[in-house]
């Protein structure tokens, strides 16, 4: 399909890339309850169940679409011929895919291998990649933890995404139990080129500052779910019986809410919610332009 009015589209994108205020749209203090509640609503709407396979997820989102892959060069040239090289996997399913990296020798190797890549520093903007957009998907796989300018990726997305496009970020989960425990014990095992960790609220803020929104957030966790112990299954059964005896209803967000009021209702209501745990090693974030049906401070369909 031929893209029309590309210049006009990018003029509109540049206007949208003007920094927004983020939490400052709501309050003068980042600790203000209104700002925190708005962030909580954004994250609650974004939470998704764990993803079993990071690369398969990216392939599915990039299939048949116009893709920009940021940081396309592998750690070493030998990886370019391997089945785990992310850029190769994405390029195989995308309708069109261009990679970008600051490593000129690596870009030359990528092009020599038959792929399409450009040597360019995105901190200066899209530059030569402008004419290749707007992009349906911009991928930054395992990149944020290596860069000093986290906002660069969001600036590029604000400038280069199609109206319905997605910026997909994958990056180490700072809350993964092995990483947390290693930090607590002072154990050094992390990739020494990792200089920064992104966490959900921070990603949501960086997106908001560029007029974007965090739409999805999940961890990659390919472990088989543990079977509840007999004691835990018994507790669940008893708790369910108590709900039936008292009477309950399902709220819009799926939580079990007792019809009765008072202390007992509040306690069981809290216990009845299914906790969301982000235990996987990798976080996956999907950032998009705001949904016109979602107003600031309210998530459509939320209780």
Can you summarize this structure?
The chain is an alpha/beta fold and 303 residues long. It has two domains: 9-222 and 279-288, Vaccinia Virus protein VP39 (Rossmann fold); 230-272, no CATH class. The chain has helices at residues 6-16, 33-46, 54-62, 86-93, 104-112, 151-160, 177-185, 200-209, 230-246, 263-272; strands spanning 66-70, 96-101, 117-119, 135-141, 161-172, 213-220, 248-250, 256-258, 282-288.
What would you say this structure looks like, in words?
It is built from 10 helices and 9 strands. β7 and β8 (256-258) form a beta hairpin. It has 2 domains: 9-222 and 279-288, Vaccinia Virus protein VP39 (Rossmann fold), CATH 3.40.50; 230-272, no CATH class. The chain has 303 residues and is of the alpha/beta class. The strands form 2 sheets. A 7-stranded mixed sheet has the order 3-2-1-4-5-9-6, sandwiched between helices. The chain has helices spanning 6-16, 33-46, 54-62, 86-93, 104-112, 151-160, 177-185, 200-209, 230-246, 263-272, and strands at residues 66-70, 96-101, 117-119, 135-141, 161-172, 213-220, 248-250, 256-258, 282-288. α2 crosses α8.
Write the layout of secondary structure elements.
Layout: H1 6-16, H2 33-46, H3 54-62, E1 66-70, H4 86-93, E2 96-101, H5 104-112, E3 117-119, E4 135-141, H6 151-160, E5 161-172, H7 177-185, H8 200-209, E6 213-220, H9 230-246, E7 248-250, E8 256-258, H10 263-272, E9 282-288
Parallel strand pairs: 1-2, 1-4, 2-3, 4-5
Antiparallel strand pairs: 5-9, 6-9, 7-8
Helix pairs in contact: 2-8, 3-4
